[in-house]
């Protein structure tokens, strides 16, 4: 391990991202032969094969993929140090729940017009980015942070309600009310199994939901399926994306979902970060339905 070269590790990372020695060389401004020699040197230092070559491209071995996880983490740390050394953030990485990326893109694009020096990378994902390890500079989360290196801000809470398409309500729920004793006769739409612990998913189960005709990790897909009359879904009370849907009354009120914004403490004095935080907060409040904390 003492013989490992960071330059060679960067080549392995480029092969992983580019999918071939040719693309890796282009990323690093190296010839394909030089790229191959760097990989060979890395394999010799580790005493194992990392890259399998064939006519259709390259494949990384299991050993290489384990090494990539370490290298990517180190690369993130180096990038973070570079940003910290500069008085101005050049690239701001923002991680948000999948359904929030599209609504937040407009306000963040407007922010860029006033800050031509700034680049923004907006990632909509269902995993929780590790802001403490600088996988993102800002993150909007559904759960509180436990790290003392992060600044956390409570944005407020959203309220959920049950919705259906007008056609589904006309055919199956003419009184626009779901009754517990007949809930099992209805189709439901929701998140995948890994998200059934969220308050609104547990609430649908408590209402009597049994069969989920459609599940997805993307809120846009859930809204689309509801609009297409596939069943009932727990959605935010006030969201312009489902203004054409019909609200269904339930025996128990929908739950509230708290929303938090976090960023790394080291960046708290950055004007760019503060501007992005303000844009995110004002955009979410303008969308409606976000109740102030406390």
Layout: helices, strands, pairs:
Elements: H1 6-18, H2 21-28, H3 32-46, E1 51-54, E2 57-60, H4 62-84, E3 91-96, H5 101-114, E4 119-124, E5 138-141, E6 150-164, H6 166-172, E7 187-190, H7 199-207, E8 211-215, H8 219-227, E9 232-236, E10 246-248, E11 256-264, H9 271-286, E12 290-291
Parallel strand pairs: 3-4, 3-5, 7-8, 7-9
Antiparallel strand pairs: 1-2, 5-11, 6-9, 6-10, 6-11, 6-12
Helix pairs in contact: 1-2, 1-3, 1-4, 2-3, 5-9
Task: Provide keyphrases for this structure.
single chain; 294 residues; alpha/beta; Arc Repressor Mutant, subunit A; D-Maltodextrin-Binding Protein, domain 2; ten-stranded mixed β-sheet; two-stranded antiparallel sheet; 39% helix; globular
Folded structure, characterized:
By secondary structure, the protein is of the alpha/beta class. The chain has three domains: 6-74, Arc Repressor Mutant, subunit A, CATH 1.10.10.10; 84-156 and 257-291, D-Maltodextrin-Binding Protein, domain 2 (3-Layer(aba) Sandwich); 159-256, Periplasmic binding protein-like II (D-Maltodextrin-Binding Protein, domain 2, 3-Layer(aba) Sandwich), CATH 3.40.190.10. 39% of the residues lie in helices and 23% in strands. It contains nine helices and twelve strands. The chain has helices at residues 6-18, 21-28, 32-46, 62-84, 101-114, 166-172, 199-207, 219-227, 271-286, and strands at residues 51-54, 57-60, 91-96, 119-124, 138-141, 150-164, 187-190, 211-215, 232-236, 246-248, 256-264, 290-291. Strands 3, 4, 5, 6, 7, 8, 9, 10, 11 and 12 form a ten-stranded mixed beta sheet that branches. Helix 1 (6-18) packs across helix 3 and helix 5 (101-114) packs across helix 9 (271-286). The longest helix is centred in the first third of the chain and has 23 residues, at 62-84. The radius of gyration is 24 Å and the shape is globular. The protein starts with 5 loop residues before the first helix and ends with a strand.
């Amino acid at each position: 391990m003492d013989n490992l070269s960071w330059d060679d590790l960067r080549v392995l990372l480029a092969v992983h991202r580019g999918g071939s020695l040719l693309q890796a060389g282009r990323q690093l401004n190296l010839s394909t032969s030089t790229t191959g020699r760097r990989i060979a040197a890395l394999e010799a230092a580790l005493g194992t094969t990392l890259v399998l070559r064939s006519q259709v491209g390259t494949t990384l071995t299991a050993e290489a993929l384990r090494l990539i996880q370490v290298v990517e983490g180190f690369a993130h740390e180096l990038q973070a140090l570079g940003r910290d050394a500069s008085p101005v953030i050049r690239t701001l990485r923002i991680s948000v729940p999948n359904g929030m990326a599209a609504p937040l893109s407009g306000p963040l694009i407007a922010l860029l017009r006033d800050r031509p020096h700034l680049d923004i990378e907006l990632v909509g994902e269902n995993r929780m980015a590790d802001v403490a390890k600088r996988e993102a500079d800002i993150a909007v989360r559904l759960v509180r942070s436990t790290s003392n290196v992060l600044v956390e801000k409570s944005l407020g809470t959203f309220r959920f309600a049950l919705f259906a398409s007008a056609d589904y309500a006309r055919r199956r729920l003419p009184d626009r009310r779901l009754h517990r004793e007949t809930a099992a006769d209805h189709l439901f739409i929701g998140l995948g199994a890994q998200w059934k612990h969220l308050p609104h998913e547990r609430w649908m189960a408590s209402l009597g939901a049994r069969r989920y005709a459609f599940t997805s990790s993307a809120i846009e897909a859930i809204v689309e399926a509801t609009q297409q009359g596939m069943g009932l879904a727990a959605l935010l009370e006030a969201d312009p994306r489902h203004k054409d849907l019909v609200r269904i009354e339930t025996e128990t009120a929908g739950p509230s979902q708290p929303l938090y914004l976090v960023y790394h403490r080291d960046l708290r004095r950055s004007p760019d970060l503060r501007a992005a935080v303000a844009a995110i907060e004002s955009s979410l409040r303008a969308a409606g339905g976000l109740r102030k904390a406390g």
